Amino acid sequence: MSDNLSARWHRILDMTNKDTSEEVMIARSSFDDFSQPTAWRTYEIKCGERSFFVNAGWLAELSPYFADQIYVRKTDQKRYDMDQATPNEVLEFLRCITFCPMRKPLSVKNVSLVLTFANRFDMRPVQARCEHFIASNATSLSRDKTKLFQVTCAMSQCDPNSSTMSVLVDKLAGIKEEDLSRLQFADMPGDVVAEVYAQKLQKNKKAQRHQGAGDEETASGCCVT
Fold first, then answer.
1. Positions of the region Disordered (predicted)?
2. Which of 39, 91, 98, 157 could hold 119 in an S-S bridge, CB 3.0 to 4.6 Å?
3. What's the rounded Cα separation, in Å, for the pair 170 and 166?
4. Residue 176 CA to chain centroid, in angstroms?
């Protein structure tokens, strides 16, 4: 078993040395599917027809919710039924929070999903990791309006008063009015929605002032001529 594990790590290191691109590394690396229990992964997370087996101690380290569920209540049932999610979403989440043997990096595609789960289970270390990623990649996130909106919704449930949240609100306020109206603001807290539109109004007024100043300069130039 140790030889197999060692060989697997060598393959991972070889891939890293050949190409340090995160996306290429993700595509080439194999992440666990958590489908089989092991001596240390005996806690079952059930989602639909699929079961995922994880280390209960690791879950408890990350989440006070699971610490209470598994060790404080001490129920005989060693299983948690995950609702309001699909098996593929749960798998992606587990891969992003668990070293088995390596943890899947956060990306523009999965950060809103991971942060939503982290908020649900009060996983502070995961929330902090997601917030750091979002703050570092706000410009990339803003290129996709839907992703930007999803991340802002998830972030509003995590830390609505953070500087990262302010950046996201500013990015949302920069979206065109017709595109902004198509977003599902019912999923976002009312105070955050109000802040988005307040900033949108400020941006519009600023744009109008600049346009007015430009028109005056043009008119002044014509008179001089």
1. 205-225
2. 157
3. 6
4. 24
In the block, tokens 């996201």 appear at 168
Cβ-count burial of 85 within 10 angstroms (0-12 exposed, 13-18 middle, 19+ buried)?
Answer: middle
Is the pTM higher than 0.70? yes
Residues linked to residue 167 through DSSP beta bridges, in sequence order: none
Helix (H) / strand (E) element for 53: namely: strand 50-54
Of the two residues 19 and 148, the one the predictor is more confident about is 148
Please enumerate, as own/partner, the contacts of 132-138 that have beta carbons within 8 Å and a separation of 24 or more: 133/106, 134/164, 134/168, 135/163, 135/164, 135/167, 137/108, 137/111, 138/164, 138/167, 138/168, 138/171
- Locate all alpha helices (DSSP H) within the chain, ordered by sequence: 2-18, 22-28, 56-62, 64-67, 87-97, 111-120, 124-136, 138-141, 145-158, 163-173, 177-180, 190-224
Are the C-beta atoms of 121 and 66 separated by less than 8 Å? yes
